[in-house]
Design brief:
alpha+beta; five-stranded antiparallel beta sheet; four-stranded antiparallel beta sheet; 10 helices; Endonuclease I-creI
């Protein structure tokens, strides 16, 4: 991430350390501490699948000082998932302003604001336990972290479970929902194009998602490309791998499956407008086909009667 232009401001505080307030997540027999149940009840199964996808994409999951930690930071305009997670788990939320990259128009450095929430310790272990069955990209990493807390890992299977709630969360994190309007200078006519892209440096994960979508009948393409620019430390960047969906019927079907779970309003608006356009285009195209069939039947009828 780019350098902060000023210190982060805490705009919401948590009520305190969960361990000192509620005790350990599990007792000596391995049973869940019932004081943590109110937090878990704030999530539906679809919410857990969504946040598995979101944290696979934009989350930072690690061990800090021997304790699990989960961090999620999003731009302020897209930060509803941060607010949702912080409200459900009673977490602090920090507001930051960072100096961004140069804009294409004026090449000035642009400042971006973001919201960040962070959970560590018992609540982090609880969250990871809840989303673990639905994780895909970071499943192996999270299992190693859980091994520092739980001796029996039989319940933490590495078997993958695909769902559209997960994919909606992953798309909110790593997806690009495009609605482009191009105007020809020569003819002054405007054309609209729609595209969905999902990008990651994890080739196996992208190809797994692609195979799942193809199995369900979606017209999906995969592209891979190299990034020639080096990182700040001089090491090479990883290759990028991208899923592309441009077929209008596939886009409409995919977006209808995303909408019940998506939480970023800017992307929801693009999905809804795409569906409206596809419906209009399909109806218009259908009417043209219908008129054409009737005209052909009329010509055939005239030829038969003229003989």
């Amino acid at each position: 991430m780019s350098k902060q232009s000023r210190k982060a401001v805490i705009i919401k505080k948590s009520t305190g350390n969960a361990f000192y307030k509620f005790g350990p997540l599990t007792n000596g027999e391995g049973k869940l501490n019932e004081l943590y149940l109110p937090f878990s009840k704030k999530f539906t199964f679809d919410d857990l699948k969504y946040f598995a996808g979101m944290l696979d994409g934009d989350g930072h999951i690690s061990l800090k000082n021997g304790r699990a930690s989960v961090e999620l930071e999003l731009e302020e305009k897209d930060a509803f998932p941060v607010a949702f997670l912080a409200d459900a788990l009673d977490l602090s939320v920090q507001y930051s302003v960072r100096s961004g990259g140069k804009t294409i128009q004026n090449k000035d450095r642009k400042k971006t604001s973001s919201l960040r929430t962070f959970v560590q310790g018992e609540k982090a272990y609880m969250l990871l336990c809840m989303i673990f069955p639905f994780l895909l990209e970071k499943k192996g990493v999270v299992r190693k972290i859980l091994a520092t807390k739980f001796s029996n890992l039989d319940f933490f299977s590495l078997e993958k479970q695909f769902s559209f709630a997960y994919l909606a969360g992953y798309a909110d994190a790593e997806g690009s929902f495009q609605k482009l309007i191009r105007t020809s200078k020569r003819t002054n006519h405007s054309n609209m194009s729609f595209r969905f892209q999902l990008t990651s440096t994890d080739e196996d994960h992208i190809r797994y998602l692609c195979s799942c979508l193809r199995e369900k009948g979606f017209n999906v393409k995969v592209h891979s490309y190299k990034r020639n620019r080096l990182r700040k430390d001089g090491s090479p960047n990883k290759d990028m791998h991208r899923i592309d969906v441009t077929d209008l019927r596939s886009l409409k079907r995919l977006y209808n499956l995303f909408l019940p779970y998506a939480k970023i309003h800017r992307k929801i608006d693009v999905m809804k407008s795409t569906i409206i356009y596809v419906d209009y285009f399909s109806a218009k195209h259908y009417d043209k086909e219908k008129v054409g069939r009737l005209a052909r039947r009329k010509d055939e009828y005239k030829k038969e009667n003229s003989i």
